[in-house]
Design brief:
221 residues, mainly alpha
């Protein structure tokens, strides 16, 4: 046998021995890798289908809101919150129903749905937006302290002007005009000169800085 032939024979024997000793482990590793790949694809497909189903249910809810169908709205929202709470559509649906309830001056369920939306949304900017809406509802509901607590949970830089204005509204409800004045001044400082809401905040501030009118029939000195 030539040296080259013997070398090839030895190499072949070494390969066969390695396969015999490690073949089962290698095969198991290949099978496991294939299962992981297949499982990942199945999971991705499931997630995609889940999002599509949630979007469809949100569309049902929107149609119910537009059609003023309270029963269909309640059913669609319940489905979203129960079965699709891990999607943003459930939070969007809760916020949409809260807006509907505010329009009907039904503030308590509006606050509850906004609190649910805040607790189930991952995006920080949207959480802050829902917080602002909740604070506005709480102020209208006469729960100014709770509104301030909600605003305190927001990152300092998020919607700074609107948050400051709402703080002013809440402080005014609590009978604290000085704190309200400071908050309105902070709001104006955060607003551009041509911002649409600047005049409204300025009016609130002006109302606080105007001296109280003298009682009728009095003789001011």
């Amino acid at each position: 046998m030539a040296f080259e032939d013997y070398d090839e024979y030895e190499q072949g024997e070494a390969v066969r021995k390695w396969i015999k000793e490690n073949g089962i482990a290698v095969a198991a590793g290949v099978v496991l890798a294939l299962l992981l790949i297949f499982g990942w694809r199945q999971w991705q497909a499931h997630k995609t289908n889940h999002q599509v189903e949630a979007a469809a249910q949100f569309a049902v809810l929107q149609n119910a809101v537009q059609g003023n169908d309270k029963q269909a709205m309640s059913t669609a929202l319940g489905n979203l919150q129960k079965n699709y709470a891990n999607t943003p559509y459930a939070a969007f649906g809760s916020a949409a129903v809260a807006e509907y309830d505010v329009g009907k001056n039904d503030l308590k369920p509006a606050a509850q749905n906004l609190q649910w939306a805040m607790a189930h949304i991952d995006q920080p900017a949207l959480k802050s937006l829902f917080t602002l809406r909740l604070a506005r509802v709480l102020i209208a509901e006469g729960q100014a302290k709770q509104a301030l607590d909600a605003l305190d949970g927001m990152p300092a830089g998020d919607y700074a002007a609107i948050a400051a204005e709402l703080r002013g509204d809440a402080q005014l409800k609590l009978g604290k005009p000085d704190a309200a004045r400071t908050a309105y001044q902070q709001a104006i400082a955060k607003l551009d000169a041509d911002a649409p809401q600047r005049n409204a905040v300025q009016m609130k501030l002006d109302n606080l800085t105007q001296p109280a009118a003298a009682p009728t029939g009095s003789n001011p000195r």
